[in-house]
């Protein structure tokens, strides 16, 4: 059987990098994408040295031209895209930020990466998934985006992840019965540049549920939100 091919966004470091490693360890060809070519090439080379089938492709998720170019590359060079992990994310909220005075510009910037990015990449790649009646889309979300228990603090980030979760449900509905499964996941609090040094989890644990969702069998769930491979409330 043809090896599956996956695109992971924001994968030069952190959880995305580890998702690439774990997917490639399952004999999946991986397109490790990132906005900085030098760092992305270096990250891909690290995994190649581990004997893994990983190549780098530049993708700033806020640039529609680069999104189109990536979709064209997947169609031209591979004729398929089986897996998309929307991992790239930013958290520009200031420490102590509140919804009472968060600048709208912070929301706009955050949504560009955390919401419009995954929206446009999914739109660009779903047609390629439909071509082979197979697709897995994993949106790397956060417990901070849960409506249940929604609080104040990091308001732009929370809004962006809640919106991303809505996108998961919309794409799951739009791709019903097409062989495409679309899910959100929360990695937990993970030691990365975003999570900080005090986070209790390593990237291996943070990546696990995303990889599980990216490799679901055909009768697996769609339109769900998961942490540690278990459903969690929206
Ligand atoms: P990270 O180490 O800061 O990595 C974030 C990645 O996103 C980086 O590779 C970054 O690239 C990339 N990125 C940012 N803007 C981008 C853009 N416009 N285009 C392409 N790539 C872009 O953070 P992380 O902890 O691994 O986060 C990965 C995902 O997990 C995010 O969606 C985050 O919201 C989510 N998450 C993390 C935690 C946690 O505790 N760490 C908890 C819940 C959810 P550069 O290197 O170029 O900046």
What's the SSE blueprint?
Layout: E1 5-8, H1 14-25, E2 29-34, H2 37-49, E3 54-58, H3 64-78, E4 83-86, H4 104-131, E5 135-140, H5 155-174, E6 180-185, H6 203-214, E7 224-227, E8 230-231
Parallel strand pairs: 1-2, 1-4, 2-3, 4-5, 5-6, 6-7
Antiparallel strand pairs: 7-8
Helix pairs in contact: 1-6, 3-4, 4-5
Bound molecules: NADP nicotinamide-adenine-dinucleotide phosphate.
NADP nicotinamide-adenine-dinucleotide phosphate binds next to helix 1.
Structure description:
- With 234 residues, the protein is α/β, with parallel strands linked by helices.
- The protein has a single domain, classed as Rossmann fold, CATH 3.40.50.720.
- It has 6 helices and 8 strands, in the order E-H-E-H-E-H-E-H-E-H-E-H-E-E.
- The protein has helices at 14-25, 37-49, 64-78, 104-131, 155-174, 203-214, and strands at residues 5-8, 29-34, 54-58, 83-86, 135-140, 180-185, 224-227, 230-231.
- Strands 3-2-1-4-5-6-7-8 form an 8-stranded mixed beta sheet, sandwiched between helices.
- Helix 4 runs parallel beside helix 5 (155-174).
- The longest helix has 28 residues, at 104-131.
- The protein is globular.
- The model has no long low-confidence stretch (mean pLDDT 98).
- It binds NADP nicotinamide-adenine-dinucleotide phosphate.
- Residues 9-10, 12-16, 34-36, 59-62, 87-90, 113, 140, 142, 186-187, 189-190, 192-195, 199 line the site of NADP nicotinamide-adenine-dinucleotide phosphate (NAP).
